[in-house]
Each structure stands twice: as C-alpha cells, then as structure tokens.
Bifunctional metallophosphatase/5'-nucleotidase (Hymenobacter rubripertinctus), 466 residues
Amino acid sequence: MHGYLNLHQEAFFGPTGLEYRRCGGYARIATRLRELRAQHPNHLLFDGGDTFHGTRPVVATEGGILPPILNELGIAAMTAHWEFAHGPARLRELVSQLNYPLLAANIYHEDSGELAYAPTLLLETAGLRVGIIGLACPIVDKTMPAHFSTGLRFTNGVAELPGHVQRLRNEERADVIILLSHCGFPQDVALLEDCPGIDVCLSSHTHNRLYKPFEAGGALVIQSGSHGSFLGQLTLTVEAGRVVSHTHELHEISESIAPDAALQTRIDAALEPFAALNETVGTTDTGLHRLTSVECPADDFLLASLQALVPADLYFSNGWRYGAPIAPGPVLLNDLYDLVPMDPEIQTAELTGAELHEMLEKNLEGTYSQNPLHQMGGYVKRTLGLKAYFKAENPKGSRLQAVFVQGKALDPARTYSAAFITSQGVPPKFGRNRQKTGQHIVAAMRTYLAQHRPLVVQPHDTFIVV
C-alpha cells in the first residue's frame, strides 16, 4: 500500500507509452472485498507489507493514522519492510494496535538470538487447516538506514523455511501452506525452488503486476502491484491436502468502484490535519514516474531540483520503486511528498573516483545480481553529473564499461563533490567530509517547479545499458 489511504494516480503500460488513471484507496478496497467475500465466504486476506510508510500523513504520524483503518478490513496477517522506517520499537507499538499479527520467520533479536515476531500462523477455513509462514524483507539491516534495524538481525529465509514447512505439515497437520513474503519476486522463486512443500507464495516488494500465477517449486506465486492500486485474488480447490486447481484475477481498484461510505468518512477525518497538502505548487507537461529501473523522470526532476540549489560535481538519490506517479497537469504539494515522504535534508560529501566506481558497481550488483538472493531491492541508483555505460548481464564487479563525470573520464585518484539525500543515496562507507546543508528536498522541488512552468523533464541518459 505504501501508505496510500485514498485515490491516487497510477501508471499503466500502453501501446504508445504510459497511460495514467486514478486507482486505490482503502475505502474502495473495502467495497471490493465485501463483494468478493459475498461470492467466496471461505476466504483469507493478507497484507504483504510496505504499509506503514510512503505518504506524508503516514510518515508524519509514524504510522499512527493507519491501525483504525486497517482493523476494518479483516486482514489475517501481514509481514514487513518499510514498516521499520520508524524504528523497531515504534513498529512493535503499531503491531500491538492491530487485530492481526505480523509474521516474520527471519528477524532475530541481536542480543538474545530469539525471533522478534511469530514466524507462522495456523488458521482454519472451509474445513482446511492453513499454515502461513511470514518472511520480512531481508535487506532492512543491509541497505536501509541504520535506525531501521536497531537491535535486530535479518536473514534471507533460506535456513528457516524448510523447518517451518515440515513442522506445519507434520506437526500442525496443515492442508495448505502459504508463504507470505516481502523478499521480492526473483528471491521468492529462488527460495521456492529450493524448498518444496509450499502451495502458495504471496509475494511482495518488487511491485510486479502478475496477471497469472507463476509456478516455482510446486507453488503458485502471485504478486499484486503496489500502492494498493490492485487486489490479487487466488481461488484454490483443495482435495486430500493437495491443490488440484486454481483461478486467479488481478483486480484493478479503479475510481469507478464506489468507496465504502463509513470507511471513507473515517479516512477523510484522519486526513483533515493534512489539508495543506492539497495546495497546487506547479504544473508538469511530463509524467513523473518511477516505473523504469534505469533512470526515471520523477528522479530526474528531483535531482535537477537538488542541482539548482547545491553546487556539486555529482548528485545522488536512491533507486526507490515507491511513489505514485504524477500525471501531466497540476502538481500538488502532496505529490512532492509522495516522491520523498520523509522530506530528508540534503547532504554533501566528497568521494574519490575509486570510491565512486565501487559504489556504482555495488549498486548494479544489488540490482542485477545473477543470484536473486543477492539482489538488494530497488532500481539503479539515480544520478546526475555522470554518464555510465554498463552490461547488466556481467558478473559482480565487472559491469561498468566506462564512466564519465562532468564530461571527462572518471579519475580514480581525483576527489569529487557530491550532493545527495538519505544514506541510501551515498552509503556511509563511501566518502568523507559529510555535511548537512540545512536544505530539504521537498522545498527544493517546490522552488524548481515555481521556476519551471510548466515542468518539462528530458532524460539525462546517465546510465546506458550496452
């Protein structure tokens, strides 16, 4: 969901380019759920995570705006990723307010070695015993800001999964086993191929819109887009402990769905303190999206805003997938926060050419690793001021073919200045002389929009796949 309480823009692939229309919102999801439950009285609903982060109201309340809304949906269980943005202690508070559990078989307390959350859940529906295994996103303590994982250790689930499958089958007598995972589609496929015995994988993290299930290791894998724009429905026929047939539909939560009146009233009341976000701050002729893994107009705009404010050789942001697109037309303040809801302070640092090369290779490995379990989530790092030619299919450490900074070949011994947002833009291990500028990125984007009416974004071609 990434925190989208109401209708928002979504982008769709069309024959001549991207097409935009409004989707989503919990009140419309509630209506669709009511219709589906009337048709299928034996049902279970799951949340794959990325729920308590992604929009300004959710970030400003550290997720507190959501539990009263989520508790109206009849969710059976969830797992997590960006939920840790407010710190592990805050997430425990939020989970205690929910009427369903957070499952994670791969998160441990560093001090005791004990699991931080329940790993599994056993439910009954249609006379069947359904075992659910949760796997949270394993990158939280590896690539996310340090405060996300204070006192916790995350694994990729490889060691844990087989034991839970065997226990649920043999001791808990589960007829069906579901993996509720926020590891990512390629990662889940790799896990399933090495761990037979799972019937269904409800995959998240990589924002795939799977219009039919993918089969891996005997399991049906579905993933249902992002931002709550879609609702995945998988209907199983089970005989003698075996899934013998299935149907699947990826429902678009379209604007034409009538919102549940009571829930919409609750949402509207919760959003009243954030009415100022509806201010129009500019206009754009370019659709601003993050649907492409190598450069995107949303972050080209973000980095151009940064460049206009802070002098540097290089500019960096993280390759985030989240953030509803901004369609051509008026731009609201809310739209800017959707791109970077935490409104981070702009920072500067100095990196050598050798460090820059290492940082880029590390990012490319995390995006395109030939081992899915080594992919660290997100897209290619968003940059301005450089041009890099690379081979995505090459082994780790050998993808970059040529790199240029400000039109000149990268010099490993030279020191370059960089401006960036968040530690994901320039990880702490790289560079020196880090400084805070006192400037924040939302204000920078707002100023840039005021100076460019309408906004037109041209590709920078910073990364070229060869």
In short: The first strand starts at residue 8 and ends at 14. The chain has a mean pLDDT of 97.
